[in-house]
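Much of our argument rests on the idea that a fold can be written as discrete symbols. Part of our work consisted of pairing the sequence of a single chain with a tokenised description of its backbone. The amino acid sequence and the backbone structure tokens for this protein are reproduced below.
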Amino acid sequence: MLDRDLLWILCSECQINLVPISEVLDKFDVLLQNMLLIRLMGPDRQKLEKLTGKNWDRVTAPKDESLKSVARIVGKQIEQKRQVVVNVNNHYEGCAVLTIDRMIDILHY
């Protein structure tokens, strides 16, 4: 059997009612080892597709507070020497690339 690090996959703003990432981490942070994967998905795919016209080149549904919250979590995890992967779906704000740029700006990298 292979030894593997524990990897938690958490979702923000999914179509189903999930506990916010911050609450999950508060409860289970001690169980995390070296890596954390966060996937940011929008709450309503069809609505966002109508807003964008399936043109994913701009932020059409900004989630400023949610993004700041996730950035704080990412920053804290990096300070704890954990590898953090943030997977951003276009349906989160309208443009995954611009959302990543916004998060980098928040993190001051």
